[in-house]
Design goal:
Elements (H helix, E strand, L loop, with lengths): L19 H10 L4 E8 L17 H14 L5 E9 L5 H10 L5 E5 L19 H18 L5 E2 L18 H17 L3 E5 L14 H9 L5 E4 L12 H11 L4 E6 L2 E6 L1
Parallel strand pairs: 1-2, 2-3, 3-4, 4-5, 5-6
Antiparallel strand pairs: 7-8
The protein binds zinc ion (ZN) (2 copies).
The site of one zinc ion has 4 residues, from loops.
Length: 272
């Protein structure tokens, strides 16, 4: 079956203007059987510049809109309710409170968007240290988050920080960080969580999707099986970007037999 997109942003995210219906219509046109919208909610986000975005989701309005679309399109596509939660070591209790309050989510992506309050999207994150140190800081924050927080299903865009590094993918040397990824995957796999392949980087100038092939291979070699696929589209034109070419090739090369989708926060293993 066609690989389904489980990481998409609509106008309920601060950084997207795409209407939910435009996304659903595009997914139907692409012939995909399920889709999960995963709008941003970053609890205690620190706004990085005057007038900057704060990524606070109006969750009640969002879920209401999704419910009516699920009914409207039920004969054409299976719409799942998702959220991309920004995770930080300072919000453990607030993440628990949020996910206990909103139990309608089928799927929760946990992502690192800030490291110690700083957004790696901005050059300040890389100042006064080497790129290797800046990358390591990001990966170490993921390790801290997966140690402390359990209220997510997959960890999003594991090496997204590479996208914004001054020398981009040249800055990432797998062997410099392998030990952290081993520690991250040990916890993720043992807790029954997963990771995603995120193709957002492919239409933002990188040669590979997140995470790097070596990271994916390590996950597979350590016994990781839960893997979702997302375009991270903030515009419907990028829905399912690279799925039937790049992603299918990568998953097949690594001997994955399935891609995962989620319903009521339980993984479904779909044959590739
Ligand atoms: Zn993200
Ligand atoms: Zn996203």
């Amino acid at each position: 079956m066609k690989i389904c997109d489980f990481h998409v942003h609509s106008e309920y995210s601060d950084d997207s203007e795409a209407s939910l219906s435009s996304i659903i219509e595009k997914a139907i046109a692409l012939g995909t059987s399920k889709i999960c919208i995963t709008d941003h909610h970053d609890i205690d986000f620190i706004v990085q510049e005057p007038g900057g975005m704060d990524f606070q989701l109006d969750t009640d309005a969002y879920l209401d809109a999704l419910k009516s679309l699920r009914d409207k399109y039920q004969d054409k596509i299976d719409i799942r309710f998702g959220v991309e939660l920004g995770l930080m070591n300072t919000i453990v209790d607030k993440v628990n409170d949020y996910t206990n309050k909103y139990t309608d989510f089928d799927f929760i992506i946990g992502s690192s968007h800030l490291v110690h309050g700083v957004d790696p999207y901005y050059p300040a994150y890389y100042a006064n240290r080497t790129e290797t140190e800046a990358l390591r800081d990001y990966f170490e924050s993921i390790l801290e988050n997966v140690s402390l927080i359990d209220h997510y299903n997959v960890y999003g865009h594991l090496d997204y920080v590479v996208r914004y590094c001054p020398s981009k993918e040249k800055a990432f040397i797998f062997d410099d960080h392998k030990d952290i990824f081993e520690a991250i995957f040990k916890i993720i796999i043992q807790k029954g969580k997963g990771i995603e392949i995120n193709t957002g980087s492919l239409y933002k100038g990188m040669s590979y999707a997140h995470p790097h092939m070596e990271i994916l291979k390590l996950y597979k070699d350590m016994g990781g099986e839960i893997i979702t696929v997302g375009s991270d589209a903030h515009d419907p034109k990028y829905l399912c970007y690279g799925f039937e070419t790049y992603v299918r090739d990568v998953l097949t090369a690594l001997s994955f037999k399935y891609f995962c989708t989620f319903k009521e926060q339980k993984p479904e293993f779909n044959p590739l």
